[in-house]
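Order emerges. One example.
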Amino acid sequence: MAANLKISPLKPMSDFQDWARTVALEMEHALESLLPAANTEPARLHDAMRYATLGGGKRVRAMLAFAAGLVSGADPKRIKIVAAAVEMIHAYSLAHDDLPSMDNDVLRRGKPTCHVEFDEATALLAGDALQALAFELMATHRLAESTETQVRMQQLFARACGSHGMAGGQAIDLANVGKQITLPELEFMHILKTGALIRASVLLGADCGKPLGDAEIAHLDRYGKLVGLAFQVVDDILDCESNTEKLGKTAGKDQDANKPTYVSLMGLMPARKFAAELLGDALDAVAGFGENALRLRQLAKFIVERQH
């Protein structure tokens, strides 16, 4: 079990960047403790799990969970477990997506991808093991006020990871390489592939606190869907505009692979405009929460305005 957060990410801070760095640092410590030690057998598998998860990434999903927890007054120790589980699922998805049978990439978070550093079989097993560990964490810790809520959290988490979420979105993505698809089809794909886990991060973080009303949950759900879609739109823009060094992954990969993106379907300027519209709608979705949604608003702006 990881130690309690030294500096609670829910403690008010005037500067968003300080808060974001605190969450990222404390999540790194939590993940280091929750992952199997690299020197325990099977050591190579455990080393690969740690390699895929630690030492990089923006931890946006973890930050979303902590920010949503502010709305419901959640205990940071509970959110830490949820955030760790979400980050493990994200790490597993990247290890699998980078495989030669998927996106066939060699760089992730500024270092060789998991299958390049180890081998394809180990990267595949590391992803499998990370997924299993994420669900073990969600099942073995008390995360909500009621058993009913905790069961619902498990269901939400599973759906976000499966064929109606991230895995399904990746399947649609692979099936559409080199094909012409419509904007609604592209949006559906990314609501699953990228958006489902981001939406789950928001809702799971909020579920760690006091029960919210149906209307409040609906507003958070809408926010999660909007920022999840905005995240992908900006990813498509950066894939076109940025460079490999800044991104920490291969720039221009989607264009080279002839994948449909928001830039290829809409054009660069309309895609930027769409991201700005999604940001405005996301801010509106959480306006009723007042100051409790400060971090959610700041995160939405960070997601849209980021440069990598």
About this structure: Confidence is low (pLDDT under 50) at residues 1-13.
